[in-house]
Amino acid sequence: MSETSSIYDRIGGEEGIAKLVDVFYKKVLADGELKVYFEHAPIEKLMRMQREFFAMATGGPIIYSGKPLRQVHHHLAISRREFQRFTEHLIDTLNSFEHVSRQDVLDLIAKINLYADEITNDTNVDG
After folding, report:
1. Torsion angle, alpha carbons of 11, 17, 21, 23, to 10
2. What is the spatial distance between Cα 26 and Cα 23, in angstroms, rounded to a whole number?
3. Which of these, 15, 58, 118, 120, is most buried using a 10 Å CB contact count?
């Protein structure tokens, strides 16, 4: 692949993103600390939104059509530690893709981390 191709292209385009999300969510849903967040979630919709988000974040031609991330995640009270575990599963998954370089992984994680404040909300509001 050329150096000018996007991470999206190196992952394998739409098909590669779908595989990435499938493998990634198997890891996330098997994680005892994270699976609780997905027990009542519409998994098919969630995975479709995640495919759109990852496609956009990797430089693909797809635009994320979901609700704002803060709105979707605020009520979940996701901690920074849980967000980190989520990204660690993403790193492991990305590392299994043959044409994705270490720099690609770092670049994508940097993009995902830009949304950490919108996704995490671990302040204790109990009186």
Report:
1. -40
2. 5
3. 58
CATH of domain 7-119: 1.10.490.10
Q: Which is it for the CA torsion 20, 43, 53, 116, positive or negative?
A: negative
- Write out pLDDT tens, residues 55-113: 999 999 998 898 888 888 888 889 999 999 999 999 999 999 888 899 999 999 999 99
pTM of structure? 0.86
Domain boundaries, the chain: 7-119
Record the tokens describing residue 126, joined without a space.
């109990």
Q: What share of the chain is helix, strand, coil (3-state, %, to 5)?
A: 65, 0, 35
28, 86 Cβ separation under 8 angstroms: yes
77: tokens are: 């009270």
